[in-house]
Design brief:
By secondary structure, the protein is an alpha+beta fold. It is 55% helix and 8% strand. The strands form 2 sheets. A 5-stranded antiparallel beta sheet has the order 1-3-5-4-2, sandwiched between helices. A 3-stranded antiparallel beta sheet has the order 6-7-8.
Length: 586
């Protein structure tokens, strides 16, 4: 269950809203399910009762108080999860009495508690309306009411068999999740026919400007290239206090500004500067041979992602995981900018889902943050890809690494008891699976056909090599995997190129975390092809496809030089990293 509270100064106005049609005609059959004494007038069910009568009853102690009380109205909403069963009026009444007791409105066995009512109208939620002056003419002590109420709701969820939201109520989780849009923002987006609110679009724009940026100057230049306004708020001493951002608007009136903390906890000035302090890896020399090509860059980035996956497995401290999550979002944001249209939306949705797995109040490990941000920067400045041929294979490789990393993040959160963060990571993995399928379908189908056409002695030799190179349990999974034929074809190619298949298998499996993979054979296929630099597994491109690909490349190239290149001079890409593949000893 979720709950929010607000205060006001007009009891009658609040009652008119609760008993009215609502802002979108969502209120049906409004009526009381509980009250301070069980005998409050109910304009919803009693035709002779009026809102004014109910207002006068609620305000009795406020009037007797003898002097003005600022914000004397206490209004709390309690909503069940959409997947929960519909609760009866009696159950909602019992919940309301427990909530007002926990909040301090009407503590148990306290005859001098405040006056309150609970109104149910249609949807599976109630509104509790109270006045904060007690019968003994003192004001209720409500400090800390949110935490007490949430603790009580956790107990209610378990007793009533409702969905457990307890992990979302921790201070760390509330500090980490992106700030949700308010009702006026949602209505404005709906009125303008926009899929996202201005706050959500602004948050995505800020993240994309931040991805792989080496410092504040580049960050601000990227924001300006997107048309996003940014101002630095300063203390009287002149020191920077924070950022505030606004989207460009064609409407009359001033822009709507949001501070970094109003977008997300990791978009405040200190957190952004913490990222800059982690640094970016710069190459020792400019070696232009293939280093900046989108294909080579994606292969190197997938290696960095595999290392990050192993890091969580080896050292699952919160600081390490925090750096990996933050860096993964940056990688996804740069991929969303530079990937073909067919997978761009799913990659962006994966990035937005992964935002809900962030870890608050933890300093990220600098080494991990540096490696991930360096990969994001390389991806951004390598430019866009067409998704065809070798570029499509490289895209499938990095997406396979991202899927595995998202699954590992989900496992880590699940082990900590963070159910909703784990669910968000699994949702990100599902979006990435969809994007992966759009790139990997063709090359995997080609490899599968090649693998099934291998002579029987060669297939048997590769099966023996897999049993010898891989742990027993993993070997059984790989050989039974539907991706085994594609892996066998890859091993055959590598063998013909002079590599030792057993060494390649052992090396690819040694990069860790295959237990969570949907298809360990496919993961090994991409790792081996990346390490051995095997050619793209696809049929010859037709002349028509070649012409279409050239046109897409020219269009993508013109787009890729817009925002980043206008903001900064692209850096030289880092030298390739990762273990060398094993050649057969002759």
């Amino acid at each position: 269950m979720i709950t929010t509270a607000r205060s006001g100064a007009d009891t009658l106005k609040a009652l008119k809203y609760l008993y009215g049609p609502g802002r979108r005609n969502e209120h049906t059959d409004p009526h009381l399910v509980a009250s301070w004494d069980g005998f409050a007038p109910d304009p919803g069910r009693d035709s002779e009762a009026t809102l004014a009568q109910l207002r006068d009853a609620l305000d009795l102690h406020v009037v007797r108080y003898g002097r003005p009380v600022a914000k004397h109205v206490y209004h709390r909403m309690v909503r069940a999860d959409p997947t929960d069963r519909n609760l009866s009026d009696a159950e909602w009444g019992a919940i309301a009495r427990r909530v007002v007791a926990a909040a301090g409105i009407a503590p148990d066995d306290d005859p001098d508690g405040c006056r309150w009512v609970a109104v149910h109208h249609g949807d599976n939620h109630i509104h509790i309306l109270a006045t904060v002056v007690r019968a003994d003419l003192t004001q209720a002590r409500l400090r800390g009411d949110q935490y007490r109420t949430e603790a009580e709701l956790t107990r209610i969820e378990r007793e009533f068999g409702l969905k457990d939201w307890s992990d979302t109520r921790t201070r760390d989780y509330r500090a980490a999740i992106p700030k949700r849009p308010k009702s006026p923002e949602l209505r404005k987006a709906e009125r303008l026919g926009q899929e996202e609110t201005g706050r959500a679009r602004l948050r995505t724009g800020v993240r994309r400007a931040l991805a792989g940026a080496v410092g504040e100057e580049e960050f601000l230049a990227r924001l300006a290239a997107q048309g996003i306004r940014c101002e630095v708020r300063r203390l009287p001493s002149g020191d920077a206090r924070g950022y505030k951002f606004a989207l460009p608007t064609g409407e009359p009136g001033p822009p709507v500004w949001f501070s970094g903390s109003q977008l997300a906890a990791d978009l405040t000035l200190p957190k952004i500067h913490e990222r800059f302090a982690a640094g970016i890896d710069q190459p020792a020399s400019r070696d232009p041979v293939g280093q900046g090509r989108p294909t080579a860059v994606r292969y190197r980035a997938s290696t960095s992602l595999d290392r990050a996956t192993a890091t969580i497995d080896d050292d699952p401290r919160a600081g390490q995981v925090s750096a990996v999550v933050s860096g993964t979002i940056e990688v996804l944001d740069t991929l969303a900018l530079t990937s073909p249209v067919l997978s761009r939306k799913e990659i962006n949705q994966a990035a937005r889902a992964l935002e809900f797995t962030a870890i608050a109040r933890t300093r990220a490990a600098r080494a991990e943050a540096r490696a991930m941000r360096s990969a994001a920067r390389e991806l951004l400045y390598a430019g866009t890809t067409t998704g065809r041929g070798e570029e499509g294979t490289a895209a499938a490789t990095i997406l396979a690494s991202l899927i595995l990393l998202a699954i590992v993040i989900a496992k880590w959160h699940a082990a900590q008891g963070h159910q909703h963060q784990a669910a968000a990571a699994r949702a990100a993995a599902q979006h990435l699976r969809t994007a992966y399928g759009r790139h990997a379908g063709r090359p995997i189908a080609v490899l599968d056909t090649q693998g099934r056409q291998l002579p029987q002695p060669i297939r048997e030799r590769h099966e023996t090599q897999a049993r010898q190179a891989l742990p027993a349990g993993l070997a059984v999974r790989v050989l039974a995997d539907q991706g085994w034929a594609a892996l066998a074809a890859t091993l055959s190619e590598a063998e013909q190129a002079g590599y030792d298949p057993e060494a390649l298998l052992a090396q690819a499996a040694g990069q860790r975390e295959l237990a969570s993979a949907d298809s360990p054979a496919t993961v090994l296929t991409w790792r081996i092809r990346r390490g051995a630099r095997l050619p793209v597994p696809a049929p010859a491109v037709t002349p028509e496809e070649r012409r279409t690909g050239a046109a897409l490349s020219r269009t993508a190239g013109s787009r890729s030089t817009g925002t980043p290149a206008a903001a900064v001079t692209p850096p030289p890409p880092p030298a390739p990293s990762g273990p060398e593949t094993a050649r057969r000893t002759r």
